[in-house]
Write a structure and sequence with these properties.
With 154 residues, the protein is of the alpha+beta class. 28% of the residues lie in helices and 32% in strands. It has one domain (8-151). It has helices spanning 48-56, 65-70, 88-97, 125-135, 145-151; strands spanning 8-17, 21-24, 30-33, 36-45, 75-83, 101-103, 119-122, 138-142. The longest helix is centred in the C-terminal third of the chain and has 11 residues, at 125-135. The chain binds zinc ion. Zinc ion binds at residues 88-89, 92, 110, 113, 115, 118.
Length: 154
């Protein structure tokens, strides 16, 4: 899907955590992440590509809650799904209601809204794909060395 540079887009990061670990996530404090798959929902105005490139980079200052998590060597972004609409909180709400997800830390990624969280532990990856497709998301990035190098402009 081509990215409309002038509009607001919502993205969903599918993240894999290879090992249990605990980190300090800014003001949220200590958060324990168990091994498995997660999704994080965010949005960007106009600068979607730059934002996604930033998420894929390990070497950066922590600004958002998600930065603390993605900087770890134990995490990897498996997929990125996007939609060219502002529906970040609406998407978070759908996953919040889904019985196959778990909230790891209240307030993660949702300091600026009323959502319980924008990060969810996902028990069923196949179901996740169906939910995203039904909501109108399409896949923008899937993990492979070639595509990472491409996206990072190497
Ligand atoms: Zn929200």
């Amino acid at each position: 899907m081509p990215i409309n540079k002038s509009s607001v887009a919502t993205y969903v990061l599918v993240i894999e955590i290879s090992k249990d670990f605990e980190i300090i996530v800014g003001k949220l404090g200590k958060v324990f992440f168990k091994k498995g798959n997660y999704i994080y929902i965010g949005s960007a105005k106009a600068c979607l590509e730059a934002r996604l490139r930033r998420h894929l980079k390990k070497d950066k200052k922590s600004f958002w809650h998600i930065d603390y998590l993605l900087k770890s060597k134990k995490t990897k972004i498996l997929q990125i799904w996007i939609i060219d609409k502002k529906m970040e909180c609406q998407t978070a709400e759908v996953f919040c209601q889904d019985p196959t997800t778990e909230i790891i830390k209240k307030g993660f990624g949702s300091s600026d809204c009323k959502c319980v969280s924008h990060l969810f532990y996902i028990k069923n990856k196949e179901l996740l794909k169906n939910i995203l497709k039904e909501m109108g998301f399409s896949i923008y990035y899937s993990f492979s060395k070639f595509r990472i190098d491409n996206l990072l402009g190497k």
